[in-house]
Amino acid sequence: MKVKAEKTMSGVRHLLLRSAAGALLLALSWPAAAQNCQTASDMDDAARTAITAAGQKFFDMASKGDVTSMQQNSIPSLAANFGSISAIVKDRQPELAGAQATVKSMFLLEADGTAPLPNAEFYCGVFGKNGQTANSAIFNLSNLPPGKYGVVILTVASPKGKTHFSVIVQQEGNDWKLGGLYIKPADIAGHDGDWYLSKAREYKSKGQMHDAWLYYLQAADMLSPLSFMSTQATDKMYEEFQGARPADFPAADKPADLSAGGAAYKLTRMSPAQVGNDLDLLVRYQVADASNANQSYQSNMAVMKALVTKYPELRDAFSGIEARAVDSSGHDYGTLLGMKDIK
């Protein structure tokens, strides 16, 4: 049996996927001079060497759990609010300690001007008549201050599996300071993003559209190391599954109804979630008061049972379900059960 979980799961998954047609339209509109991007092959040797060294330096610090040095080598705004970075490094320590990291890709973003850019878009690499190519990328960043930024994406290999380790560094004089850190698994339960995409297609071919949509979300999350970066692969996935969200699943602006245990609930989120080495289903829903632990536990159990009754295909696709009751005051109570224990 899986244990009851009472902590809010860390991290919120965001998908920033563009259709190929949209990418083409944007590519044909030449980017403003205030926003420039270079791929690794475009950079001069000095910039490429410096950004590579910075990425490796921060990986080495993270792999040793040396968050103090990371904070001391961060830009001021990040150093002043370093709690989330410390937490993610600690959470991912088992995958990082003693692991080997190789640079998968890197980019140099340059934002000119004197004020932060509300919506900065960077087009990196060569675009073709159908949009992005194998080595191109698009970055979309909000309220980006002027400056030079390096993006270094590393693949980390350890006995625990593969991990995406991505850093954003900002140039200050001759030094590159840490501006952001993003760590996410490159494989879950022994499978990578391509496998989850293949399974999504398999579920779709069987007419199991709920499993297909959820596995598509998982594949997109794993194949895109950064939520604000889109590539040819993510564009193709978006095009393939555009409009495939089941109508009875919750969307960002539209909760879904679920009857459970004689009560009606509003589901606000259904998404895959890694728990240990398992792929589980995370379900969030609205309640009047989640601070009552006993009452929230009972409603969580009812919601999980109602879900597998309404969508029996979920049993084959996920190891378990985590139901989280959330109220308007911010109270949050979660319960996690393995599928075999949901009866």
Write the layout of secondary structure elements.
Layout: H1 20-28, E1 35-39, H2 45-63, H3 67-72, H4 76-79, H5 83-91, H6 93-96, E2 100-111, E3 117-124, E4 137-144, E5 147-158, E6 161-172, E7 175-185, E8 187-188, E9 191-192, H7 193-205, H8 209-223, E10 229-230, H9 232-241, E11 256-260, E12 263-275, E13 278-286, H10 293-310, H11 314-317, E14 320-326, E15 332-338
Parallel strand pairs: 13-14
Antiparallel strand pairs: 1-2, 2-5, 3-4, 4-10, 5-6, 6-7, 8-9, 11-12, 12-13, 14-15
Helix pairs in contact: 7-8, 8-9
How would you describe the overall organization of this protein?
- The chain has helices at residues 20-28, 45-63, 67-72, 76-79, 83-91, 93-96, 193-205, 209-223, 232-241, 293-310, 314-317; strands at residues 35-39, 100-111, 117-124, 137-144, 147-158, 161-172, 175-185, 187-188, 191-192, 229-230, 256-260, 263-275, 278-286, 320-326, 332-338.
- It has eleven helices and 15 strands.
- It has a five-stranded antiparallel beta sheet with strand order 1-2-5-6-7, covered by helices on one side.
- The protein folds into three domains: 31-185, Nuclear Transport Factor 2, Chain: A, CATH 3.10.450; 191-241, no CATH class; 256-341, GMP Synthetase, Chain A, domain 3, CATH 3.30.300.
- With 343 residues, it is α+β, with helices and mostly antiparallel strands.
